[in-house]
Amino acid sequence: MSPAEEFEQLRPLLFSIAYRILGSVTEAEDAVQETWLRYDLSPTRPVSLKAFLSATVTRISIDVLRSARVRREEYVGPWFPEPLLSDPYQDPEHSAELADSLSVASLLLLERLSPLERAVFVLREVFAFGFPEIASAVERSEAACRQLAVRARRHMDAGRPRFEADREEREELAGRFFDALKEGRLDALRELLAADVQMVADSGGKAPRRAAGFFGVDQVCGMLDAFLRPFFTIGGVMVPRPVNGRPGAVFRDRDGKVVNTWTLDVLGGRIQAIHAVTNPDKLTHMGPVGDAWALLREAQRARRTVGRPEPAGPVTVQEPVAETDQENRT
Question: A single GO molecular function, which one (predicted)?
Answer without folding.
Answer: DNA binding
